[in-house]
Task: inverse folding
């Protein structure tokens, strides 16, 4: 099994295998990876003839095999893409198991002129391809490409390419800001980029444009609030809290989010003292590098004792919010004011 970065390097070198299986959470990211092979193997004018796409959720082994066995037209290679190949998932129904078993027997005899590509989507963040026994077996004949989240520099470069493909340049500062604001999913990234490009027209993209078009996530709000607590800017923290409550009048969800954030900072603090690095946090929390770096920087603004006390404050506030007949907004403000009393 290889990750996306290794796969990309191999394709750039021209080391293209006869078969691949892609898996990950981001389908648009997987499709971009597959397009690298297609462009390397098929001339634009023969794309309709030498590229075959098959719906993996509504197919049979015979359909896949027949597509692979057909000779390419006016070219050396043809590419067969079986998208959403759910029969590759660890648990499938009897028909999916049959297709998998037939494919497993067939792939060692793939024609030299065919590149067979199959992909399936992972169920959630906890679903890991290295736990899939089917991949362990079929991976002896086909290359498994795990499309996990990219590291910061690679991620920024790929998002920058999204804008370039759409004929628009974006400054590095604005690019970093865009990446921080948008959800790390290339389907969403491309749609948000389209909105931004249409809005800005011929002029350059500015941070203000990004603020107008891409609303802050609850995670961003929580991070900003904790940052104000760290710098003891409680007046601004109260104003920020009011803005959050205005957007979502759900006190319990907000206090829970703040508590979880402090808990994560506490965990990072402990792990840092035990020698953990950025790469470890990227793996542990399934977050991109720049987000982990921001969390580490924020963690350094607190002592271990402070974070422990802040978590207790949140728990106490949550308990009070569950009581009836209290002013919930006032309790939230008390929480912020009480953070000033937490000593190092």
Result:
């Amino acid at each position: 099994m290889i990750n996306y970065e290794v796969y990309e390097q191999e394709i750039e070198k021209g080391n293209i295998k006869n078969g691949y299986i892609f898996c990950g959470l981001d389908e648009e990211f997987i499709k971009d990876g597959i397009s690298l092979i297609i462009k390397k193997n098929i001339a634009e004018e023969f794309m309709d003839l030498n590229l075959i796409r098959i719906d993996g959720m509504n197919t049979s082994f015979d359909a896949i095999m027949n597509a692979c066995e057909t000779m390419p037209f006016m070219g050396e290679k043809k590419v067969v893409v079986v998208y959403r190949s759910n029969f590759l998932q660890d648990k499938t129904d009897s028909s999916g198991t049959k297709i998998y078993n037939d494919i497993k027997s067939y792939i060692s005899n793939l024609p030299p002129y065919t590149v067979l590509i199959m992909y399936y989507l992972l169920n959630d963040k906890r679903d890991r391809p290295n736990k899939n026994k089917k991949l362990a077996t079929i991976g002896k004949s086909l290359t498994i490409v795990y499309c996990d989240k990219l590291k910061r520099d690679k991620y920024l470069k790929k998002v920058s390419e999204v804008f370039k493909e759409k004929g628009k340049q974006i400054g590095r500062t604005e690019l970093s800001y865009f990446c921080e604001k948008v959800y790390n999913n290339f389907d969403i990234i491309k749609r948000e980029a389209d909105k931004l490009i249409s809005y800005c027209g011929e002029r350059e993209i500015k941070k203000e444009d990004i603020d107008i078009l891409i609303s802050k996530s609850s995670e961003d709000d929580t991070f900003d609030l904790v940052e104000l607590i760290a710098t003891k800017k409680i007046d601004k923290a109260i104003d920020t809290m009011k803005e959050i409550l205005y957007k979502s009048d759900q006190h319990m969800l907000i206090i829970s989010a703040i508590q979880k954030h402090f808990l994560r900072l506490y965990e990072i603090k402990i792990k840092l003292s035990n020698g953990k690095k950025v790469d470890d946090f990227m793996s542990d929390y399934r977050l991109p590098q720049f987000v982990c770096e921001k969390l580490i920087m924020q963690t350094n603004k607190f002592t271990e004792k402070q974070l422990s006390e802040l978590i207790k404050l949140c728990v106490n506030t949550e308990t009070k919010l569950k009581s009836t007949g209290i002013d919930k907004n006032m309790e939230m403000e008390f929480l912020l004011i009480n953070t000033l009393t937490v000593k190092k």
In short: The two ends are 46 Å apart (CA to CA). The first strand starts at residue 2 and ends at 3.
